[in-house]
Amino acid sequence: MPRMVFDQVTKSFGGDPVIADFSAEIEDREFLVLLGPSGCGKSTMLRMIAGLADVTGGAISFDGEVVNDLEPKEREIAFVFQSYALYPHMTVAQNIAFPLLMNAFRPWYHLPVVSAVMKRAIARRPEVAERVAEVARTLELTDYLDRRPKSLSGGQRQRVALARSLVRDPSLYLLDEPLSNLDAKLRTQMRSEISGLHRRVRKSFVYVTHDQVEAMTMATRIIVLDAGRIQQIGTPEEIYGEPANTFVAKFIGSPGMNLIPATAADGRVTDARSGQVLDRGADLADGDYLFGIRPEAARLAADGEAGPAATVTTVEHLGGEVVAGCELGEPDAEAGLTVDLGGTVFIRTAPHPSLTGRGRVRLAFDRGAVRYFRADTGQRVPATRGTPQPQGSIR
Amino acid sequence: MRLRRVTARLLVSAALLAFALFAGFPVYWMVNTALTNDSELYRTGQDWWPHLERLPESPSTLADVPIGSWLLNSGFIAFGTTLLSLLMAVLGAYALSRYRFHGRGAAAFLLFATQMLPEALLVVPLFALFGALGLLNGLIGLVLANTAFAMPVALFIVKSAIDRIPYEIEESARVDGCPRYGQLTHIVLPLVAPSIAAAAVVTFFEGWNEFLFANTFLTDSEKWPASVGLATFVGQYTTPLSSVMAAAFLFSLPAIVFFVLMQRRIVSGLTAGAVKG
């Protein structure tokens, strides 16, 4: 049950840095999700934790012991691959028992004839057979123990891969996008199964995904990565509510946070393009910012309520609610507003008759949910109008 | 409609049967000739139907030659070539497929280069070399010479099969605590078994059909393989065709048996289900 410390870990392939200056401390029994877009280095990071890839610089330690040069086996880990990586010539039972066999194998057992004899002998040992049966029962694989992987469905194969990792009772579970090959319904089911597994085994999990829904629903802590650099470390709530920078703000959420170029002067924040007032009384130094608001914190203004005018451009019905894209400003000079349309603001709200193509609306924002980011660096401005200090650290 | 389908199927079957008979006829004629005596062959003409009643007496035509030891010699060369080639091919293929090292491309090229040189070109240098090493007039030297030609072919057959195994399967085994050589024996070899069987067929026949080196290096007729022994039947004035055919039949038999045994293993699709794909 390790407490993991990453101290300025770097990884380069032929001089090209893939991971740069990765530093973090992860407590025991966390469900850590490495989240980021494709090619951000998250799988490479996981492979370094597993010992399947060398660490170019820095140190990874488990419970204070640097594990950089340890073989995967010596790290007491289990690894679930995106492609399942089952042994196709073995039955489900043999697949699950394989880590136990290897644990009991002595070097000379690997000799051709000896290995066949010893594999059978060890598989028949009561402690091995019972453990395989127990794990198979846990993951509802008992009926498939004599089948080979090719005759299983995707979800069943995934469960075999999980069973194989579970059987050895490792102290750290590493999962590399394990659900990406499953269909949407099965993914939801497996998500809760993996979360349940985490609660049951009470061990540390490191889970790599590009799917923010998986990250938000399963993680106790998330590390958001982009281009090999940590963007933010925090709980799902912190990552969502207090994004450290514009990358996290846009990446998390569907659609992501609205970021409207804005100018602050004398506590008044105006849309940089349409000139409409977005916020008043903000505790900001004069200058250029990005006005950030989550789609669900933006809504249609009530009758008579002040708010920036906008034109509806897109409407997506999601059943109980609607995601509408609204361009700030109004394409009508006679209304006394500028025709220069601002950026598109997405709002997530209940269906409303005015939310139709080219409909003219006024928007209202939940002031407590407004976040400001510096226009030049993209970093969030720590506190405005008494909003709470961020919990997530920025590295 | 049904009639037309049945007719079409009959026509296709008839065509295939004709083709099979055409392809198999030489084998039949070999057996038939082996059971025909020389007077019939050269004077009255050969019957279409084999004289099966002569089967018990047919070995007597080969009584003058040590056909048994020739076949054993051929077997030794063939199995020796197969085992040595496969052992080296599997290890070499795994290294070329899975390790990144300087000179990997050059090593692969050099292995291929052995195939560019005709065997006849190497007879004299090998003769000199084997003479110096004391390998002339022995079967071990022939196993080595044939392995030099057969192994690269086997290596590339096995390498292309290993290349198709996803890395993750071996990495998974590594995480499960399997050492590198264990990954080869537990994971890779069972998955490339069909290709190893195919390579075994190729190397076996390279050794079984050995003629040129044996004819040059071996002086002792007791050590001849069947191929060389068979060639000595051809005399300056007469060739006992029925004896040649009887010996040829015996020479073919082990090769056919070996191929039938191996071809059962040459099945594909074993890696299906390993990874999503």
Provide structural commentary:
The complex is a heterodimer of chains A (395) and B (277). Chain A is of the alpha+beta class and 395 residues long. Chain A has 2 domains: 4-241, P-loop containing nucleotide triphosphate hydrolases (Rossmann fold, 3-Layer(aba) Sandwich), CATH 3.40.50; 254-374, no CATH class. Chain A is built from 9 helices and 20 strands. Chain A has helices at 42-50, 92-104, 112-124, 126-138, 154-166, 184-201, 212-218, 236-241, 246-251, and strands at 4-13, 16-26, 31-35, 57-62, 65-66, 77-80, 172-176, 204-209, 221-226, 229-234, 258-265, 268-271, 277-280, 287-293, 298-300, 309-317, 322-328, 344-349, 360-365, 371-374. In chain A, the strands form 4 sheets. Chain A has a 6-stranded mixed beta sheet with strand order 6-7-8-3-9-10, with helices on both faces. In chain A, strands 13-12-11-14-20 form a 5-stranded antiparallel beta sheet. In chain A, β11 (258-265) and β12 (268-271) form a beta hairpin. In chain A, α2 (92-104) runs parallel beside α5. Chain A is elongated, with a radius of gyration of 26 Å. Residues 336-340 and 386-395 of chain A have low confidence and may be disordered. By secondary structure, chain B is mainly alpha-helical. Chain B is 71% helix and 0% strand. Chain B has 12 helices and no strands.
Biggest beta sheet summary of chain B? none
The third-level CATH topology of the largest domain in chain A is: Rossmann fold
- The CATH superfamily of the largest domain in chain B is known as MetI-like
Mean pLDDT of chain B: 86
